[in-house]
Input
Amino acid sequence: MTNNGGFELFRQLLPLLIPILIIELGLVVYTLIDLARRERTRGPKWLWAALILLVSLFGPIIYLLFGREQE
Output
């Protein structure tokens, strides 16, 4: 017995998921580039990089709100 219902649901949701994944990937890339270019951050850069990469959508948002120091 196979579970085709789960796969069919995935196929139906895929058009909605692709734009979200692209936006998330773009946000991660943008924040990592911003982090690399900044001389100073509020905390160690390695910690911000880990947060950006490991906390999915919220990591980059947290970095943009709290991690950057004004230049």
Residues 16-67 form one domain. The longest helix spans residues 4-37. The two ends are 61 Å apart (CA to CA).
